Give the backbone structure.
Amino acid sequence: MIGDALFIFLGLAVLLVGGDLLVRGAVGLASAARVPALLVSLTIIAFGTSAPELVVSVAAVFERQPGIAVGSIVGSNIANTLLVLGLPALLYPMTADVPGLKRHGFVLIIATVLFAAAAYGAGGVGRATGAAFLAGIVAYVAFLGWMAKSSRARDPVIDEVAEYSDGGGTRLGPALAYLAAGLIGLPIGADILVEHGSAFASALGARPEMIGLTVVALGASMPELATVAAAAARKRSEVAIGNVIGSSIFNIFAVGGAAGVAGGISFSDDALRFELPLMIAASVALAGFVYLRRDISRISGLSFVLLYAAFLGALCCGGFGR
């Protein structure tokens, strides 16, 4: 069991490094090929930053561990709002009164409702629903592209993905090396994480979702936490909140869609009773701040963090045993 735990963290490390190298390599390759920066931001970077969750979820489905995929999607969205947004708000309060945020808050609610409808109505995301979700993320990216070209006003989600392309190199050799390393590292890390994560959960008598809800969600959230904290410190609330909203939308449509097409995911009774309602509540709370144009104050940030701590505590106390 100790060996499985060590391999879990090894797989997570390989996964995160692979995801970072993939984005760096793809951006560098696109820059060398003189691909427009906007296209790079809205496609390569937007999808690349969700690559760890996506690859883990697809690998979990292929290895017949759909619970890990469910935990990864739901856990990442819970962590996005409560932890990634809550922790920086403790030091740097943020304003949700930002032009353009409402439209993305609306898309987040639509995505969350569709995901919940699939879970409670059909018991999971099948191939047809997964394909519809993938069509949804393509439509969303196309909408972002249209907004960027047709509007002079700045858009918070476009600003957020553009942050990743700053300083992208144009040298072809290193870009190809980074890209190759990322493409190799991502599936290797995902395979290690899923194989040893499922073995570790089985040894503890825990639900497979526990690995996705904790290890994958927390690990994949660390780069986003750093990005949001840096944006909040620079008083770029639009980038910080745009990061969280955009990432949550991508998790549902892109990651959930890919997992569905790969073979489908199903929800356990515990996930339907506990984790999914919390994800829905977190998304509604975030959209509420956006629509009411309320500041995410230190008190709000503390509430988010305490709720996330309570969530982890409840998982530890009640998540073991089937």
In short: The mean pLDDT is 83.
